Amino acid sequence: MFVEALIPFINASGIARVTGYSFRLSDCRDHLASYSPNVLLLDINMTDGDGMMFCAEMHKLYPQIKIITLTGHTEYSIAIRMLKNGASGYVVKNEIADEILNAIQTVTHGNEYISPQIRRIADRTTQTSVILTPLEKLFLQMIAGGMSNRQIAEQLNVDLSTILSFHKKLNLKLNASNPTELIVNARKEGKLPL
């Protein structure tokens, strides 16, 4: 629904025209090869892969395409990682739609765009800090204690799918791709004792 509403909004703006859209990274890859748009609006969570890694890959393949992250993630550490991976902009989906147009205009003029919500978070933190909620800290301690996702789900009395989603979000925040890397990176960030 978000995409269906966004397309006519962008097309009617006079600022940009949508040449296509994809719900899968594989389809997006094909579209970029065929059309080579000026701007790519990219979510981090895609059904067939990691939007963060895809961003880095596409930035190397198509450095002329400006990539704007359009996501529900409001963590400053994730925004910084996307920008380091080649994104020119970062917009949170719950911002007003005009922010997307502002981002498109800004990046097409060669500037970086960060949504106001992320800028407000940046004002309260340092560029390298990773902010974890109390529940995320508990989850991290359980993983460090050797508990499996299934055991954590049972102990917290939640569905396994909830735990898997939670684990994915922690991996994003701490730049990890597996539990061992998650623990190592959490210790480097001072989120777990050495």
Task: Produce a short descriptive summary.
This protein is of the alpha/beta class and 194 residues long. The protein has helices spanning 2-13, 25-35, 51-61, 76-84, 98-108, 116-123, 134-144, 149-156, 160-173, 179-188; strands at 39-42, 45-46, 49-50, 66-71, 89-92, 113-114.
Characterization of this structure:
The protein is of the alpha/beta class. The chain is built from 10 helices and 6 strands, in the order ααβββαβαβαβααααα. It has helices at 2-13, 25-35, 51-61, 76-84, 98-108, 116-123, 134-144, 149-156, 160-173, 179-188, and strands at 39-42, 45-46, 49-50, 66-71, 89-92, 113-114. It has a 4-stranded parallel β-sheet. The chain has a two-stranded antiparallel sheet with strand order 2-3. The mean pLDDT is 88.
What characteristics describe this protein?
alpha/beta, two-stranded antiparallel sheet, 4-stranded parallel β-sheet, 194 residues
Number of beta-strand segments: 6
What's the number of helices?
Answer: 10
Average residue pLDDT? 88
Main sheet specs: 4 strands, parallel
Low-pLDDT segments, ≥5 res: none
Please state roughly what percent of the residues sit in beta strands, choosing from under 5%, 5-15%, 15-25%, 25-35%, 35-45% or over 45%: 5-15%
Write down the secondary-structure element order.
HHEEEHEHEHEHHHHH
- The side-by-side strand order for the widest beta sheet comes to 1-4-5-6
Helix content: 40-55%
Radius of gyration, in angstroms, nearest whole number: 18 Å
Principal-axis shape equals: elongated
- Kindly report how far apart the N and C termini lie: 45 Å
Strand pairing plus helix content: what structural class?
A: alpha/beta
